Structure prediction request, 446 residues.
Amino acid sequence: MKKFLSVLLLCLLTLNFVPPAQASASPETEVLVLEVNDEINDGMRDYLIRHFEQAKEKGNVAAIILQMDTPGGQVSSAGDIKRAMYDCEIPIITLVEHQGLSAGSYLALASDKIAMMPGSTIGDAEVRIGSEKADEKYISAWREEFAAMAELNGRDPQIARAFVDSDIEIPGIIDKDKLLVLTANRAYELGFCDYLVDSQEELLADLGLEGAEVVYGQYSTGERIARVLTSSTIAPILLSGGVICLFIEFLTPGTGIFLILGMILLGLYFGGSVLAGMATWIAVLLFVVGVILCLIELLMPGFGIFGIGGLLAIVASIFLSTPDIYTAVKYTAIMLIALVVLLPILFKFAKKRKFFDKLMVKNELTTEEGYVSRNPKLNEYVNATGKALSVLRPAGTMLTDDGERLDVVTKGDFIEQGERIQVVGIEGTWLIVQKIDERETKEENK
Prediction:
């Protein structure tokens, strides 16, 4: 009974993905078609490996076709998929519809057979960190793995090496200092492509499986979410945006909008990594500790211990939440660039537009309305003058001319330590200060 229910559930899940049955279709034999489109990442890895396992359990799957159109993706994810392909025991055929580049060509080489459609390409698998070519030790390992996979299936290993290393020169095929990319016709001429076909149906005919039922693999909800959140485009945006929002919230006393937005963005970033199996809660904890240490450094600038410790904790959390060192370095660089470049620009723009003024808490809680100030002495400090005891960026400490130390904040300006400042108002529980014009300072000294 349980087996019957399982088969029935599987049929219901795949119903919307099965094309109209052919007249000669045989229900005893199936061909499983799996998508390898867009970026190869951990969401796609989970999708492919799950379907490989299910195909082995069913026992009636004659072949698996990887329907490919990808510019590449994450090296570690491709490595996991390759190992699962080798363990699958069912013939796997890659059908390159448009692109099978970088990590896509890696998976194609791991397949038992490669088929290509007119206008498609394969190759261009150089390992890069950001925009720079990776070190030789990384390239050499990747290059020889390509060669080993090519040899396993009777393909020219030197051509496989030329996919990875621009230093490889093959007379009549590729010049030095160029990465090899093969068109469908050229790949077929060189024996790197087993079938040239115009359609999936033609490939099935060449494989002798035209009578088999074609079943299309379906992404689960979790795999779809993980695939989006862990993509190399979305993930660094979530990380950088979340960090920027947290810093804005701390530097501008307000309604908590940026705190909530930052937590949502970082929750999506780390949630996607946890969902994809790349990160544990240790990475999340390290990130939280790192942010706290960095904020302490903003309150007590000059020592550097908290700032360095916080930055190291954040970087460590990024390394624990990414699939490989290349991705970790890339995400860290993007985050730091966003903080150093975008944060000052954002504050400058917001100051001109008075954007933060609209979000900051400005309602004064008066005793007439039944409220009691948390610190009644705050009003006494309005118009008080003194100097910045620490760098105000924009929060920090002020030393008044009367010798009192006060916690203050600017309206977004950065004020250097030692500058003359004046308390100009109160917003919530914060004393708002601004820099005293140099001309006014000179007049005071006279």
